[in-house]
Fold this sequence. Notes:
Elements: H1 3-6, H2 15-34, H3 36-44, H4 49-57, H5 71-82, E1 91-94, H6 100-103, E2 108-111
Amino acid sequence: MNLEEYFNTSHIKGNAQSFIAEKTAQTLQQFCEQEQEFAQAVEQSGKTFQQCLDHVIKGIVKRGSTGSLSDLDAYNRAVKFYFPCAVVHQRFELDLIGNAKESAPEAKSFDFMSLMDW
């Protein structure tokens, strides 16, 4: 499967879908590169990227109003469209000097989900 062709955003229909299409496509392509099993699930799904985006925004955009959706929620919904038991985790890094990866390997990082009070 050609991932760039599959995740082509030029023919996406719907305002909300178009709004999230590019970043979602980039993220899902990265996930396909990271996890061969996920790439296989996308390939064998028989579903289109348009259908995925429709699924992601389902229930968010209501008639006459617009809802909100975090990036993490959007990526989780998109991944679950192809691989229902998968979960996307988000990680943030704090870099106080702007180039910690280059000069300070001891940069602090934390798991955002650990801050959530579920």
